[in-house]
Amino acid sequence: MGASDPEVAPWLRCGAGGMVGAGPGAGGAEPGAQPGAGMWGLQPPRPPQSSSRGVEAAAVAALGSGDGSAATEALFLALGAGVTALSHPLFYVKLLIQVGHEPLPPTVGTNVLGRKVFYLPNFFTYARYIVQVDGKRGLFRGLGPRLMSSALSTLSRGSVKKAFPLEELEHVSNRDDVKTSLRKVVKETSHEMVMQCVSRVLSHPLHVISMRCMVQFVGREVKYSVLSSIGKIFKEEGLLGFFVGLIPHLLGDVVFLWGCNLLAHFINAYLVDDSFSQALAVRSYTKFVMGIAVSMLTYPFLLVGDLMAVNNCGLLVGLPPYSPVFKSWIHCWRYLSMQGQLFRGSSLLFRRISAASSFSID
User: Fold this and answer.
1) Percent helix / strand / coil, the chain, rounded to 5
2) How many CB atoms within 10 Å of residue 108?
3) One cellular component GO annotation, for this chain's record (predicted)?
């Protein structure tokens, strides 16, 4: 759930400057411009930033600005850590569902059409179960490395932004400048992609450690801890062990950024008519809506990356008969596809399975 937490508010991956290529104000307001000035004459409203990614975006903005003081940097890092800690139970439950751990039986109910369906435990029921087993502190298993991963991600994005500042492009003020605006979108998206990829690579080892600390809940193991994980992973898997699952995460980030930004640009340029009285308002929300839609389509990359991070690592959840040992992330993807599980864990509130489906309880 940060650049290192892709699981929450994924439509905010487009960076601290707002959602690049979002139509109105996609590139941010020009220096000295009037409030609300942007690509189409209107700055888009910020989507709700209820997760660590929202705070991280603000932190990156501060870290990338010339007047960002050390106190400001520390403040945003502290805010990011607070939000990451508060959202951790949500992330923890989501991960356990992703790896297929279903310790509670489904309940029988009916849908809006009156058909009988099985409902799997939602987030709140699952969280109560964890509290019963591990106490309230159990909801924060694996939080330490995740906090470090989030902080490293924020700092690395800010450093890259300072080292490779985005060159200002000509201001685009109307629909006639479609080619110019597309060039602006491509340049901004490329810049954001570099920041995101560098951030992902640097923070991924801590992401792997955090995953493994959390999934030990399934088998009640104590193999991995914050201090011993580095030595264990290096001894058993070598340096590459810290980067398992990195490729699908990177691919998901790249596909999301380009898909979201380009779709929003073409919708704003070709489908929203300037003669429409609410054209500016529609364009201001296009990127937000596209972000939600594209994040759903790229979810399998997140799932496969997280599963590869814990596969064949000596824990019950990553070994047969609980899980096959995957040869590669492509093997994992194909297996989940055949099982119809590529979107497992994408919903935490309404989790249904067909009454005709077989279901095993751990």
Assistant:
1) 60, 5, 35
2) 10
3) mitochondrial outer membrane
Extract the tokens encoding 121: 């435990």
Enumerate the domain spans of the chain.
49-60+67-101+141-168+176-346
DSSP secondary structure letter of residue 223 = S
One-letter identity of residue 276: F
DSSP state of 38: S
Q: Is-contact 242 177, C-beta < 8 A? A: no
CATH architecture of 49-60+67-101+141-168+176-346: Alpha/alpha barrel (1.50)
Residue 287, phi then psi, degrees to nearest 5: -65, -35
0.90 exceeded by pTM: no
Do residues 9 and 1 lie in contact, with contact meaning Cβ atoms separated by under 8 Å? yes
Please, how many CA atoms are within 13 Å of residue 259, restricted to the half-sphere of its CB?
19
Tokens of 61: 């903005």
Smallest Cα–Cα separation from 257: which of 305, 301, 295?
295
Query: 313 phi and psi, to 5 degrees?
Result: -110, 15
b or e along 17-29 (b: 16 or more beta carbons within 10 Å of the residue's beta carbon)? bbbbbbbbbbbbb
Report residue 228: phi and psi, to 5°: -90, -15
| pLDDT mean values, one per 10 residues, the chain (362 residues) | 44 42 37 37 38 42 49 81 92 95 87 82 94 94 93 87 72 53 88 93 96 95 89 94 96 95 85 67 79 92 96 94 94 94 90 55 46
Two tokens at 170? 């000509």
Q: Tell me which amino acid residue 325 is.
A: V
- In angstroms, the CA 46 to CA 59 distance is 15
In DSSP notation, 275-300 reads TSTTHHHHHHHHHHHHHHHHHHHTHH
Cβ(190)–Cβ(228) below 8 Å: no
Q: Which of 140, 128, 126, 45 lies closest to 88, judged by CA?
A: 140
Dist CA 348 CA 90 (whole Å): 9
